[in-house]
Amino acid sequence: MEVATCINVNGTTLLLFVLVFSLLRASHAAAPAVYVLGASMVDVGNNNYLPRSLAKADYPHNGIDYPDRKSTGRFSNGMNFADFFAKKIGLPTSPPYLSLNNDATPPITGVSFASGGSGILNETGQTYIQVIPLAQQINYFSLVRNKLIQQLGQSSAQKHLSKSIFLLGFGTNDMLAYFNNGSTIPKQYTQQQYVDHIVSTFKGLLKMLHGLGARKMVVTGVGPLGCYPLKRKLIKDGECDVEVDFWSARYNDGLKMMLRDLKSESKGMKYVYFDMYGAMSNLFQNPKTYGFTDIKEACCGLGKLNADVPCLPTSSYCTNRQNHVFWDLIHTTEVVASIFVDLLYNGTQKYAVPMNVRQLAC
């Protein structure tokens, strides 16, 4: 009995120590927590826990530049956008929600719900069999919120969430779904109707997130998707698909307008929109400024522009990842993710609108 009592006391003491340490660490950060919702750009391993999912990166050569060359489920040669974002805030990377024990207290510094292949629309990513769409990610967040209330009390949990940052990286999979070979979406919607449908659905889900206590949101637009290796390989001389780029820009225009409207309708909401399209276009136009020598070809893959096959253990990969914009047929390299987070955190309104993340966190 004495031994058992000792273990219980130590376990309680350890739990209190971890909680106090986390609170102290968060108090020195720009925000107390980062909650991540999104797709593969910010997925740090949730899909590893989806047994039927085809959208996984828990195998080589993914993670070749990650500590210990470990394949963690990040669709990157190393760290990704979410890692660098948390680092800028001054917090550890928010762990995958599905990696947490259901009975455990979620980390006070945030949780990631992001899932590679997922989208704003529930139907996006169905070709990957099993992903976590935005609506389900918000449901998971509501469960974390409930545990925070149990842990901190209603008032303190509400204050914690109001100061936390919600990073949302969506849109790419939704937009590409329209242009995929064999897609049935064009039979249901015109291109403009589809863009409007995505934006309208996104607005409704963000309202739901706001209702759960989110006040500071960071939302990324989509890049010039027609310039990704996935689309370049289909165009003569590897040029950009101008139609896909046009609709990528139209989606971003709708997203920016929606965020402005949502802010006016939602009490206490603040947001940062990241112009991924503009930031990536700048890399294409000025590659040497950033040390890039290849803006078209994927580093890891096979075939034309290394984009006929995803990054698999049997794929070839470039020896110098620092000079490539793209890691695989759709994802950027670690160095690009770092550049983009720098622009988002400290940049001007050229790329971060209407403020940057450093200002949002104040």
Automatic annotation (TrEMBL):
The record's GO molecular-function terms, alphabetically, read:
hydrolase activity, acting on ester bonds
Reply yes or no: does the keyword Ubl conjugation apply.
Answer: no
Q: Which InterPro entries match?
A: GDSL (IPR001087), GDSL_Est/Lipase (IPR051058), SGNH_hydro_sf (IPR036514), SGNH_plant_lipase-like (IPR035669)
A GO term (biological process) for this protein? lipid catabolic process
Which keywords are on file for this protein? Hydrolase, Lipid degradation, Lipid metabolism, Signal
Top-rank lineage group of the source organism: Eukaryota
For this UniProt entry, which residues form the secretion signal? 1-29
Similarity-based family: Belongs to the 'GDSL' lipolytic enzyme family.
What CDD domains does the record point to? SGNH_plant_lipase_like
Q: Spell out the Pfam families in the cross-references.
A: Lipase_GDSL
Identification of the protein by name = SGNH hydrolase-type esterase domain-containing protein
* Species of origin: Artemisia annua (Sweet wormwood)
